[in-house]
User: What shape does this take?
Amino acid sequence: MKKGLRWILLIASIGSILIGVYREEVLTVLVKAINICLECVGIG
Amino acid sequence: MAKFKRKIVQVLTAIITNGYLPGFIKGDIYRGNLKRFCVPGLNCYSCPGALGSCPIGSLQAVIGSAKYQISFYVLGTIAFIGTLLGRFVCGWLCPFGLIQELLHKIPSKKVRISSKNPAKYSKYLILLVFVIILPMFVVNVLGMGDPFFCKYICPAGTLEAGIPLVIMNPSLRQAIGFIFSWKVFLLILTIIASVFIARPFCRFICPLGAIYGLFNPISLYKLEVSSEKCIKCNKCTKTCPISIETYKTPNSPECVRCGKCIGACPTQAICSSFGFKEKEERPKEIEIN
Ligand code: SF4
Ligand code: SF4
Ligand code: SF4
Assistant: This one.
């Protein structure tokens, strides 16, 4: 039972990552992360 | 020995994921391609040394962008790591967890809070409100939402990014105002609380710990208790920094997988394992008189 759920979750999470890559979400992450985040610092 | 091994892994992970030395020298951040990837723990991407992205910061960045409502990429990454490791990340791979543990080593009277205390649910509320709902719905004219958790709560951001950058970068120093003071206040509160309470931020605030916790009961990394060996002496509960009744709930969402209960058990009834298989318990022998 748990074994099946683990496989489903692993496959679904990999699928979800691939959908995100296809939708170019990675670019949004990259742009946010390579610029100093003013909200993290406490200025924004 | 196991305790020592865990500390080495924690320190090495903190050093490797924050290994961009020029950032600390120049008062700037790493701007390379590795930042496409999320690190497993709560590690601010605006820390001068950070080589990867913070999963919670990234999640808010995508949700708050004008283009997307939800992030398949970040949620998929967190779910993948969670399915493999659950909160093993918290006990072994998160720099902010390590910082709280080190603070708790400062000699003082310690306050134990039961793992059943309902305050533990506050981190789920913070996840829902500050990480998802507010960045999704409170948007500007361009349709962009702020990363509310980063902006108003996260003490990891203040410690790892805010303070070092403000010290080293004069233009940032000139821009600080009320929000910075508020975040420094929250950081000081977290530091003081960590001296007296084990991992207060992880237990009551952290949205990443909240998500990983949901995976604890099904993750490939798990704790198992042998009902044959367990004598219900409760030593595990007394040793556990989170006061979890390990012999009853070895895979509690609150467990950060520190392994202290494993070493404390007098009958070696608790063990950890990694894999798809559940340990098979031999049925108890029936005594026939
Ligand atoms: S402020 Fe906190 S949540 Fe935001 S990116 Fe930094 S560490 Fe992550
Ligand atoms: S609960 Fe959050 S801050 Fe604590 S160790 Fe886990 S990811 Fe890090
Ligand atoms: S149950 Fe065991 S592994 Fe989990 S937090 Fe408590 S002592 Fe650490």
Notes: The mean pLDDT of chain A is 95. Chain A touches chain B at residues 2-3, 5-7, 9-10, 12-21, 23, 25-26, 28-30, 32-44 (CB under 8 Å).
